[in-house]
Structures are given as C-alpha cells and as structure tokens.
Design goal:
There is one protein chain. With about 850 residues, this protein is an alpha+beta fold. The chain folds into three domains: about 1-50 and about 245-500 and about 705-835, no CATH class; about 80-210, no CATH class; about 510-695, no CATH class. About 55% of the residues lie in helices and about 15% in strands. The protein is built from 26 helices and 22 strands. The strands form two sheets. It has a six-stranded mixed β-barrel. A six-stranded mixed β-barrel has the order 14-15-20-17-19-18. A hairpin with a 4-residue loop joins β4 and β5. α9 (about 240-290) runs parallel beside α21. The longest helix has about 50 residues, at about 240-290. About 40% of the residues are buried.
Length: about 850
C-alpha cells in the first residue's frame, strides 16, 4: 500500500514535467486513434456491407427450386428479420398474335424490402414502395415495344389475363447475370396460381429475401452451412457481386492497414517519450537505492506509477475515440447517406488492450533501466547504468506489434512475413541511416565558415554529430513515421485510381443478348457506328456440367461445394481464339493456333481460377458438358483470372474455335450508350426484335455511390494516420527539449545571438527531416510492393515520392522543431541551464 501511495504522489509531481505530459498524450492518442478508427471501421464496414447487400434485394437472400417451408420462415422471423417472397421463371407473354419470351418476377406485399420501384403509370415516373396490385402487371418498356402494348392494355401470362398497369423504369434489386437479361414483367403473388405456370418439372426459382439489423442476420448465420447442405443457395454480395465485393474487400484491407499504421506510430511516440522519462528518473532511482530500496521495489513503484498513467490515458482516449467517431460520422452524413449500425464494445476493448500492449512493448524494455540503476550514480554522475540493449527494445516492440497485426488481420502468415520483413528492413535502414547522417555532416563540414548563415549551418550539423546516437534514433523513428504515412497516402491514391478506372464514364451500361448468327455482322456494325465503346460479340452456348473425370460432379468436388450453383444450373460456354480483354492466364497455356485435339480425343478448355478452386479442378482434369441431347468433353489446359469489375461479358469456361460451332448458339455483347443516343434502342428493336437488352445503369449508379462512400472513409482514415505521425514528431522533439535548451544556453553565454540560435536549431531539425524523408521514401517504395500485392493491385514505382518526401520532411520536422524550441530561445541562459535538471 505504501508503494501505491508513493506512486500516486510521484505521479502528481511528475505531471508537471514535459516528458510525462508527452507520454500521457502519446498514450491517450494511441487509445483515441485505435478506438476512433475501430469504431468507425466497424460501423462503416457493417453499414457498407449491409447496403451492398441491398443490391441483392435484402440483407440475406435464400434461393432454391421449391417453395420454402414454414419452419425456415419462422426461424428468420424469430431472429427479427422482415421477409419477402419472390418467384422467378421464364414464360411466353402474348398480346393478340404477338408472342415474346419474358422473365416473370412474382412479388408479395413485402416487396421491396429496400428502396423503391420507379414506375410510369401514365402520369410520369413515380417512386413506389410496393409491387403491382393483384390483377395488374408492370412490364419493361422493351417488352411493351415488342408486344406493341400500352398502359391499360391486357396481356396474356399463361392462363391469366392481366392489365398493364405501368412501365418499369428501375427496380431497386435489379438482378445481374444472363438469367436476368430477358424483358421483365412483374406481377403480384396472388396472380401466380391463375397463370397455371407452376407445374411439375417447371424451371422455377423461389427466393426468400430477408432484411433486418446486422445482429439479426448474425443470429442465423450458424445455419447457413446446414441450409447449403439442404440445397439452398445462400447468396452474398462478395460472391454474387464480385465487381463490388472485391472493392469492399480492398477497402477493408486498406482501412485495417491504416489502423495498424496509426498503432505503430503511436507506439513509436510512446517509446520516444518513455526514453526522456527514464533519463530524468535515473537520479531519483539511484537516490532511493541509497536509502535501501531493492530492484523489485523500484520496479513495482515505477510500474504502479505508469500503470496509473496508462489507466487514465486509456479511459480518456477511449472516451475521446467514442466521441470522435460520433463527430466524424456527423460530418460525413452528406457523404455517407446510409444507416450505420450502433457502435459495439469490441473496438472499445481492443483500443484499451492495444494501448496497454503498446506501453508494455514499446516502453517496457526501456523502463528496466530504472530498476537496474546503481547507487554510485549519486556520487559519480557520469556513471549511467548500462541501457537495455537496442535489440531487446526492438525485439519486444516487434513481437507486440506482430501480435497486434495477427489480431487485426487474422492471418498469422501475413503477420509473420511483415514482422520478419520489417526487422530486416530496420537493420538495413539503421546501416543506411548511419552512412547518410555521416555524409550530411561531412558535407556541412566542408562549407567555408563565414559570419553569416554557413556558420550557423555548421553549428546545426555539429549538434547532430555531438548526439550521434540520439540523432540516429530520431532519424530511424522519423523515417518509419514518414514511410508509414507515405504508404497509406500512396496506397490510397492507387486505390482511388483503380476504382475510378474500374468505373469510367464509358463503362458499358447495356447488355444485348439473343443476337442470332445471321444478325451478328449487322448488329456489330450498328454498335460500332453509334456507341463510344463496345466489348465485341461473344458466342454463347448453354451447357450443364455433368461429369468431372468421368464421374458425377458432386462426388468429385470438395464437400463444402457439393451444392455449388455451377453444378445446379446451365453454364454459359463460349469459344475464343485469343485471350479476352480483362483475362490473365495464371496456370497452363492458352490454346495453340490450331487448337489440336489432345491424345485422348478431348479438346483443350480454359477455366476461371475461382471456379476451379471451388470445384477442386486442376490442369489435366476433364469436364463433360451436356448441351441439349449431346455432350462434349474437354481437358483443362489453362486457368484464368477474370476482371469481374469490367462490366463486360465474362465466362467461366472457354473452348477453342471449331468445337461448339455446330451447337445452337447466340451472341452477347456489352456497350456504352450515352443518353442522347437513346434512339439507337428504338432502331435495334425495329430491326432486330428478337434481341434482348438490359439497362444496367441503375446497378452502376449504386456501385459508384458505394465506392464514393468508401473513398471518403479512406480519406478520413488517412487524416488519422497523419495525426499519429505528428504525435511522433512532437514526442521526440519535446523529450529532447531540455538538452537542446542547455546547449543553446552555453552558446548564448559565449555570445551567440538569437538569430544564430534560431538558424542553428532550424538547420539541425531540417537536416534531420531531410534525411528522414529520404530514408522514408526508400522504405515506403520497398514496402509498397508487398502491400500492393496483398491488396490485389499492380505494384509500380512512385518517383514523385522521392522528391516530395525529403522536402516535406525538412519543412515539417524543421518547422515543428523550430516552433517547439522558440520558448527556450527566449529564456535567460541560467533558466535554460536549469531545464537540464527538470523534475
């Protein structure tokens, strides 16, 4: 108890010291940054994932070939989810003598769960939060033109006659993929029985859409695998919307990387502040040893003292983080127009745990000096205790940061790779920093002395040389700081560039399918003459995978993918002589020019790598596809990576030319059509009435909106990292302030003017910043290669960074150091000399 009381008394006294205030601020910032980023990322990630799920029509979408039972519905309702039933099928729609194949979308009273349907019911486009009433059908304008019907006319849907009540302009859950490319007709669930289209053997898809808070979806997530085993497809935005899912995955990785960078920088700030704290308490510890204190008692005393400080900083920082994320979201309301879930407790606990880990890892090894101090230091002031070896400090900090990296990323191999690579880079960086510092000081020593600026410049360089070891430590700390900030800024810029390139203004907004072979040349010419960009025409053949290596597919694929959708539906097959744009061969080789048959009589085929992974396929496997009453077998000779973000036709399976030509096929293409060229659609309808068009502009707008929100989040998280970087500069410069004031006082005693001192101090800090910026640029360039690969981006050089960072380092470090040293230049020499013994 006496140690606890003594620690509190000592802490109250120490709060007057600049280094303790810097340590408290560094710890507070560590907690505030981690909790603020944690709360923000947690809520933003759950909110964005939830909104992205709305592209599928709900937070959870279940699909199967038969109606859902009441037990499953009751499970979802008990979890707090709202439900909506849909039935999708394809049928012929007629009006008089006109017939047209159309996709039927049967909805209930709960539709839509999210958003509104834009419909023209005769008085202009309206936004409605419900589907068509019983007895009516809403149809796509394309279908109206093909059947030559208008609002108020009657169309025949199976055995039911329904009145056209409106023209669909946009659906909130418009489906992508080729199954949704037929002209749409929407009707009420009550009219389905009257159509008599639901019969044994009919190809019908039943969908059950659910919406609710994230906790409700999480409550039933443990049943997903059981449902999949029962043949129910559980749809997810990262699978069913790969173009958006990849962007969300990259954003999540970036935000996690930014949070880790903030933790690292806060840890460096804690280490810098702790060093001054220990140096200032060495005399106190030595005096206590003279009065009989043991090493254990000293260790407990200072552990309690810093424990109280860490506890106060943790609580203060956590509250600031909670308030900060609320203020941040308030500022982002106009940029993030989505409902975010309430904050959870996990980021709060993680922030406090991270701060304690940072204190132990980055400050603990240095504090060992206090308990090992010798009583002789009271008599022989030059006799300092041997400091803890640098590798012990670095090793402990590295282990703690590696553990945090593992905790945040969930990937032990990634954490180990970054940790080992970081330690190797630190060793190399220390050697390069030593050489660079020596080169800078050597260059300054060769300046011709004058009474003006060069003399002050030389004095500034000598200050660095006099404290070579301390200067080297600061140089490494600043280099890591600038590198971390540069990496986050560079990755942010390349992410935004990737997203902007992903959805340029001429991204295809229309798909055209059912183009017959005799129409191919004419349609291709029409599109090339009237559109800004087109993907070209791809042949399309529908075939079902019926055997892998001569065995039923379900017996060959991994158990967890036995109910994969690729095994339960027809796949879109195509042939191609050259590798399509946006495709990259990752294994094997593309077809030879002659695409010769293999020795076994099978033809070479190319398979998309993710599908191959799900089905357990590898090079040399044979796949048999049933097309109509015939079948064709191919041998996997290459695997491809697809650019799902291109909004162009993509295929899982590609054959060489000359294999599928004899089967019935049509063509598909995508193109960009500007709004002022809408007349082209009418011309295509008149000239080629069998061609089906789908406008995906609504989907593009939703994806662009979500990417814009992610972009704003990235920019604000970058600001947090910059704040953590500034804290490192502040902690380092504040901790060294008394020593610099002492040296400045000695120079003033010998006649140095305030101007000389100012120039000397600015030179010292500017040189330190210049070298730090140069080393930081080198470290960032090397580290960005691995990080870009981890994020799925193409690594590239950043020559501009090598010019900007050294100059920015000189200006930032020089400016902050100059400002923090201003008060010492105003003190009298005697007051400045007393700062060295500040208590």
């Amino acid at each position: 108890m006496s140690l606890i009381a003594l620690s509190l008394k000592g802490l109250r006294r120490d709060l007057r010291a600049a280094d303790v205030r810097a340590l408290f601020l560094a710890l507070t910032l560590a907690v505030a940054a981690t909790t603020m980023i944690g709360f923000f990322l947690d809520r933003l990630d759950r909110g964005l994932t939830r909104q992205a799920g709305q592209l599928l029509g709900g937070d959870l979408v279940l699909e199967q070939g038969r109606a859902f039972d009441d037990e499953l519905r009751e499970t979802l309702r008990e979890a707090g989810l709202r439900l909506s039933d849909q039935v999708d099928l394809v049928s012929m729609i007629s009006q008089g003598d006109a017939f047209q194949s159309a996709g039927l979308k049967v909805v209930d009273d709960g539709y839509p769960l999210y958003g509104e349907v834009l419909v023209d019911r005769g008085d202009g486009i309206e936004a409605l939060a419900h589907g068509p009433p019983p007895g009516q059908a809403w149809i796509a304008p394309r279908l109206a033109r093909l059947l030559e019907v208008a609002i108020g006319d009657t169309v025949q849907v199976g055995s039911a006659s329904l009145r056209v009540g409106g023209l669909i302009d946009r659906e909130p859950d418009q489906q992508g993929g080729f199954s949704g490319l037929t002209p749409r007709i929407m009707l009420d669930r009550a009219d389905l029985a009257a159509t008599e289209l639901v019969r044994p053997g009919s190809r019908i898809e039943y969908e059950l859409l659910a919406a609710g808070p994230p906790a409700a979806v999480e409550a039933v997530s443990n049943r997903f695998e059981r449902w999949r085993e029962a043949g129910i497809e559980v749809r997810d935005v990262r699978v069913d919307r790969p173009s958006l899912g990849r962007s969300l995955e990259r954003a999540q990785k970036y935000l996690s990387l930014a949070g880790l960078a903030a933790v690292l920088l806060a840890g460096v700030a804690v280490a810098m502040a702790t060093r001054r704290y220990v140096d200032r308490h060495l005399d106190t510890a030595a005096l206590m040893r003279c009065f009989g204190a043991s090493q254990r008692q000293l260790g407990q005393l200072f552990a309690w003292q810093l424990g109280w400080l860490a506890g106060a900083a943790a609580v203060t920082g956590a509250l600031l983080g909670l308030a900060g994320q609320a203020g941040l979201l308030a500022l982002l309301v106009r940029f993030l127009p989505l409902e975010l879930p309430p904050p959870g407790w996990l980021p709060f606990a993680m922030g406090i745990l991270t701060a304690l880990a940072v204190l132990v890892g980055f400050a603990g090894p240095t504090l060992i000096r206090l308990r090992r101090v010798s009583a002789l230091k009271v008599l022989r002031r030059e006799l300092d205790p041997i400091p803890a070896a640098g590798w012990v400090v670095v090793g402990m900090a590295s282990l703690v940061f590696g553990g945090l990296l593992w905790l945040y990323s969930g990937d032990p191999l990634l954490a180990l790779g970054i940790l080992l690579g970081g330690l190797a880079a630190l060793v190399i960086l220390a050697g390069v920093a030593h050489l660079l510092l020596g080169a800078l000081l050597g260059a300054l020593s060769r300046l011709t002395p004058t009474r003006g600026g060069s003399r002050a410049w030389q004095l500034g360089g000598r200050q660095l040389a006099r404290r070579r070891q301390a200067s080297l430590g600061q140089l490494l700390a600043f280099s890591v700081t600038f590198a971390a900030m540069a990496i986050i800024a560079v990755v942010r810029g390349d992410l935004l560039t990737t997203w902007q390139a992903q959805l340029p203004t001429d991204t295809p907004n229309y798909f055209a399918i059912n183009i017959q072979p005799q129409e191919r040349d004419a349609v291709e010419t029409l599109l090339e003459e009237n559109t800004k960009s087109t993907s070209g025409l791809y042949p399309l053949v529908r075939g079902r995978l019926t055997a892998i290596d001569g065995q039923p597919p379900q017996t060959r694929v991994p158990d967890e993918h036995a109910n994969d959708g690729a095994l339960r539906r027809d796949l879109n097959l195509t042939w191609r002589e050259t590798l399509p744009d946006g495709n990259e061969v990752t294994a094997g080789e593309w077809f030879d020019d002659d695409a010769a048959m293999s020795a076994g009589g099978d033809v070479p085929i190319s398979v998309e790598e993710e599908l191959a992974g799900r089905l357990g396929l590898s090079l040399g496997d044979t796949l048999t596809f049933t097309i109509g009453s015939d079948s064709v077998t191919g041998e996997v000779t290459s695997l491809r990576h697809l650019d799902w973000e291109s909004f162009q036709p993509n295929f899982f399976i590609i054959f060489p030319p000359g294999v599928l030509d004899t089967f019935g096929h049509s063509f598909i293409t995508s193109f960009y059509l500007a709004q002022e060229n809408d007349a082209l659609l009418g011309e295509m309808v008149r000239e080629y009435p069998g061609v089906s068009l789908l406008n995906v502009e609504a989907l593009l707008e939703q994806v662009r909106g979500i990417l814009t929100q992610v972009t704003r989040a990235v920019e604000f998280v970058l600001g947090f990292v910059l704040l953590a970087g500034i804290s490192v500069l502040y902690a380092a410069l504040t901790a060294s302030r008394p020593a610099r004031a002492h040296e400045g006082a000695l120079l003033r005693v010998f006649g140095a003017s305030n101007r000389t001192l100012a120039t000397m101090q600015w030179t010292e800090f500017a040189l330190l910043g210049l070298a730090s910026g140069l080393l930081g640029a080198a470290l960032a360039e090397v580290a960005s290669v691995g990080i870009f690969t981890w994020l799925g981006l193409t690594p590239r050089a950043h020559p501009t960074m090598w010019l900007i960072m050294p100059l920015a380092g000189a200006v930032v470090v020089g400016g902050i150091g100059f400002l923090l040293s201003r008060s010492t230049r105003r003190h009298s020499p005697m007051a400045s000399l007393r700062l060295l013994g500040e208590t």
